[in-house]
Amino acid sequence: MGMLHYDFMQRAFWAGGIIAVLASTLGVYLMLRRQALIADMLSHVSLAGVAAGTYLHINPSLAGFVVAILGAIAVEYVRRSYRTFSEVSVAIIMVCGLSTAVVLMSLIKGTSKSLSSYLFGSVVAVNTSDLRIMILVAAAGALFFFFLRRPLYQISFDEETAQTDGLPVKSISLLFSVMTGMIVSAAMPIVGVLLVSALVILPAAIAVRIAYSFNAAILIACAVGLAGVFSGLTASYRLNTPPGGTIALILLVFLVSGVLLQKAILRVYRNRVKHESSIRNYYT
Amino acid sequence: MMVLLKMDNVEFGYSEIPCLQDVSLQISAGEFVAVTGPNGSSKSTLLKLALGLLRPKSGEVKLQSGKPDGTKLKVSYVPQHIAAFNSGFPSRVHEFVRSGRYKEGSWLRRLTPKDHGIVEQALRDVGMWEMRGRRIGELSGGQKQRICMARALASEPDLFVLDEPTAGMDQQSRNALYAQMRRQVTQYNRTVIMVTHEQQELDSFLDRTIELTRKEEDTWGCCTTTLCSGHFGLAE
């Protein structure tokens, strides 16, 4: 626990814990709404904001945050234009964000270190202003997911049914996209642009597979997300590896172990049922 | 009798070619109406137009938003497929049917014992009470349709809009559903609009049938309205 004597590690653990809970909750909804790639797309859009911020000498985290929100709003509008092929909207906005980021990065001289920390994540990259942004996002996220938990559940099932139930589906979807942009950009300093979607999707992928109820899915996703981030940060500190990659690898190990464990349990259960029915048949 | 839904010369198409043209119809409160027609005759599209999920290219669609007593008209829609059902949605049957009660009051309202009683009754009505703890992904196609119906019943709507709700159901479940819908109309003066291919077996429960007939190669319209053997004089 010696690492927690360092201020930067304390900040990383606080920020990581906050982001793990928010990203995992968001991930469950994104996955169920078939929008799993949106987190990945918004992280690339956010990179354009970081690059623009660096180029214009504005706080890069703040610029990335604002651009991610704008990207989230844009994707919601493009998604409605391509209703049948909604994944096309993700590709369009991602190309837009990534190409802008690449061009802007080529114009910035001698600042590749700070940009690479956004690409791959760095515990040192989490400064006090990032932590403030994360706390604000956490407060907004907690309110959003608490007050809108029922409408979000209904919309995740079927947007048309939710609309006929009288829910303002368009407004809630737009707010959801904005929230996604906020969470993704807040997570970037910890896990980096390239691996943000790992933190959003992997805990949700495990939870959706094993949970029997909706609330259980969210709780399991949060627990997996927290375990992945804390163990990833610890391993990253000890092994001197980038936190984003380490966290993502640990979450992948969790996912594979979860799938194998689930299959083993199901096999044991089926064998037991088969065995019991053969004994019953023998005696009747 | 209050007119609940009115369509006047409605035209709609997903591309330049209209799939529905010259559609004019009227459905009053307290009617049990079936919408029929062959595959691809745009029956589901007609329902979506009625619900305001699609906008017509021309013509007018008017679905009453309120009732004569000033309260809001409650609508429950059961679509043909719910995509989330196939993806192992992590939800139990009871949790899903209970969501039908969420439209009553605010989003944070705590469900009362009365709400739980209504949910239980709805699940019993469709014969799914014993399976209330099951995960939705584990159900068969017919069972999934039955829990969608239970959710619709639990929301106690004024208007049921059902898109082939009997798909995948066995004969016994289908008959139980028709009888249940007839009861909703007769006892509670609710309205039912149901897209179906089983018009023959449903006939004795219905007031009217609206049939979509072919106008051109890919265009349907000109609803033919037929009074059914079981009608209760409401459509006259």
Quick description:
The complex is a heterodimer of chains A (284) and B (236). Chain A is mainly alpha-helical and 284 residues long.
Structural features, described:
The complex is a heterodimer of chains A (284) and B (236). By secondary structure, chain A is an all-alpha fold. Chain A contains twelve helices and no strands. In chain A, helix 1 packs parallel to helix 6. Chain A is globular, with a radius of gyration of 21 Å. The model of chain A has no long low-confidence stretch (mean pLDDT 86). Chain B folds into two domains: 121 residues, P-loop containing nucleotide triphosphate hydrolases (Rossmann fold); 84 residues, 3-Layer(aba) Sandwich (Rossmann fold). In chain B, strand 8 and strand 9 form a beta hairpin. Classes of the chains: A mainly alpha (284), B alpha/beta (236). At the A-B interface, helix 7, helix 8, helix 10 and helix 11 of A face strand 5 of B.
Keyphrases for this structure?
heterodimer, A: 284 residues, mainly alpha, ABC transporter involved in vitamin B12 uptake, BtuC, 12 helices, B: 236 residues, alpha/beta, Rossmann fold, 9-stranded mixed sheet, 6 helices, disordered C terminus, membrane (chain A), transmembrane helix (chain A), ABC_BtuC-like (chain A), ABC_TroCD (chain A)
